[in-house]
Amino acid sequence: MGSRHLSRSIAMQSLYEWDFNSVSDKELEIILQNNIKEFGSNVDDDSFIKKLVFGVLEKKETIDPIIEKCAPEWPLSQITIIDRNVLRLGIFELMFGSYEEAPPKVAINEAIELAKAFGGESSGRFVNGVLGTVYREMGEPMKEDTTETGKKRREEASGIEEGKDVKKTKVTEKEEMKKEDKEIKTEDVDKKTEKEIKKEKSTKIKKEKD
User: Fold this and answer.
1) Cβ proximity of 157 and 109 under 8 Å
2) Spatial separation of the C-alpha atoms in residues 170 and 173, rounded to whole Å
3) Which of 27, 28, 155, 171 lies at a 20 to 30 A Cα distance from 55?
4) Does residue 17 register a pLDDT over 50?
5) Which residues contact 110 (CB under 8 A, 6 or more apart)?
6) pLDDT tens string 79-132
7) Residues 13 and 33 sit within 8 Å (Cβ to Cβ)
């Protein structure tokens, strides 16, 4: 597990405990320190974990109405505690995080992975749907970034090289065209063969009559 992914996991677990037990913000600091001590031995710098947790805490009054707006069929209190806090983390990174640290698609993908790992069977799809709506409402920042940095970020987010799929599609189309040409030629040969057979039959019948 990558250091950043582990940091997000610890942040989510800390927010979960705070939300589940309905404890004060001060007690959240104690929960966070305990979780970093217990699960963060492989984390070199815990500042990112603290930034996420206290960032969500600070922006909660802004984030929660956004969740309600983008998931109108689900009142906040009816969303599972895991999904609710994964969404809080994802929206915080999308709206208030640094795109240098986590571009939008990375933030969304990380939240989906957290939902799949800790939530229910449909948590990943639910989080994906809500964060996708938030991202579109924001105007899809960085989607049209044509700089080399932007290209590199999108490659990291998707796990593929840009242009690779396009090239593959073109090759596939070419192969399909060749296949269709071959089928047409085969069909022409079949028609020709059929005509020849009919001609031979007609000639044979005529000879027999004679």
Assistant:
1) yes
2) 5
3) 155
4) yes
5) 4, 5, 8, 90, 93, 102
6) 999 999 999 999 999 999 888 888 999 999 999 999 999 999 999 999 999 999
7) no
